[in-house]
Design goal:
The structure is a single chain. By secondary structure, the chain is an alpha+beta fold. Strand 8 and strand 9 form a beta hairpin. The chain is globular and about 60 Å long. It starts with a helix and ends in a 9-residue tail after the last helix.
């Protein structure tokens, strides 16, 4: 059975097993959450999870449970955890600052920023991707920052996953949603080669320093080793924390639940951005036409099978629910399960970081307990399709 099927089935089991708890209405949210998380960890065999709650743009709760490694050392709110694709939301926040400064325009071709045609950068594949594989296909000139941030580039998730290992277009840029890490990495390339900026330094200065995220970085830092979270895979085996040496806009960030809670609070309030730029991050830029997020290049669903309100924001997904518009971003690898879910009107969010991929079936019940019914499209996020790293 594909891992996506396993996760979806587990979510359905946990969603029914972890119904709203009875007889505890008088207890605080923290107490209720503690009961819920411990029950979920037992059911899923999850070894470590950390959660933050933001209400009206203010961090109200930050807490961790379980272990950070096979030695049994405790996972704390300051343990360094892999951010995975939550990195993409932080990257988009950085990009919008560059847009406000007039250094980027969301709808200008990337060709405008590059000193030479994209396919001519044949020597950049080791750090970025195989741009030279696009030689002879001028559709790369249609690519814009908005198209890349809305996952509508036409690329697969990563070019190295192609049967021949070569990056290529599967559809015309901007015409539909299909998740692509290489699309975000291409925008990083434009910023670094076209604007002459170091993305890691820009994110450090513009986001991590701004929000006081002292234990967050786009690359490995030696001081992380003293309180580092390793991971657990689906089969219960452990995986050492990867010491990433390259800044990758698609997902190289290390962070802590305490730090990322600060980012989430700043994000929903729009700190460091104008109201227009903040709104652009979570605006429904492009309707999503697939029944699930992965596989990335699956056929578009019939109109009646689509989720009407589901749309691509800038590196996040926008949806509508009983509390109005919301947005979310997940993050995943073989031993990591992360999730950010926010309700716009309340400026409220739940952040979940786990160093155990088996924790993901717990997420729907946790989010519902903390935020109430949001309309979060869990079936789309964890659909019954093949699991793909993001």
């Amino acid at each position: 059975m594909a891992m996506r099927n396993i996760v979806r089935s587990a979510i359905l089991i946990c969603a029914s097993a972890l119904l709203p708890l009875q007889g505890i209405a008088a207890k605080s949210l923290e107490s209720r959450l503690d009961v819920r998380v411990k029950a979920g960890m037992t059911q899923t065999q999850t070894q470590g999870v950390a959660i933050a709650f933001i209400e009206n743009g203010t961090v109200k709760l930050v807490k961790s449970w379980g272990k950070r490694n096979a030695k049994g050392e405790p996972l704390t709110t300051d343990s360094v955890m892999y951010g995975a694709s939550l990195t993409k939301a932080v990257f988009a926040y950085t990009v919008m600052q560059l847009v406000e400064e007039g250094r980027l325009d969301l709808d200008t071709s990337i060709a405008h920023y590059l000193p030479k045609p994209l396919p001519d950068y044949a020597d950049e594949e080791e750090k970025y991707a195989g741009w030279h594989h696009l030689a002879g296909d001028d559709r790369w000139r249609k690519l814009t920052p908005r198209i890349l941030l809305t996952h509508s580039s036409g690329f697969s998730n990563f070019g190295f996953l192609e049967p021949d290992g070569k990056l290529k277009f599967h559809f015309d840029p901007g015409t539909r949603y299909a998740y692509s890490g290489d699309g975000l990495i291409l925008l990083q390339f434009v910023i670094e080669r076209g604007l002459g900026l170091d993305l890691g330094q820009e994110m450090q200065r513009r986001v991590f320093d701004r929000f006081g995220m002292k234990t967050t970085s786009m690359i490995w830092r030696p001081d992380f080793a003293t309180n580092l979270a390793d991971g657990w895979r689906m089969d219960g085996s452990t995986e050492p924390h990867d010491e990433r040496s390259k800044t990758r806009a698609a997902g190289s960030m290390d962070t802590t639940i305490s730090d990322f809670a600060k980012f989430a609070a700043g994000y929903v309030k729009g700190q460091g951005l104008s109201k227009t730029s903040r709104k652009a991050l979570t605006t429904a830029h492009l309707s999503i036409t697939t029944i699930s997020q992965f596989p990335s290049l699956q056929p578009e669903a019939a109109p009646e099978a689509r989720i009407e309100s589901l749309a691509a924001g800038l590196a996040v997904i926008s949806f509508a629910g009983p509390q109005g518009r919301g947005f979310f971003k997940g993050g995943h690898n073989d031993s990591t399960g992360n999730m950010l879910v926010c309700v716009e009107k309340r400026k409220s969010c739940v952040v979940i970081l786990s160093n155990d991929v088996r924790a993901e079936p717990m997420f729907p019940a946790i989010v519902k307990l903390v935020l109430g019914e949001t309309g979060m499209p869990w079936a789309w996020e964890y659909g019954a399709q093949d699991w793909t790293k993001d």
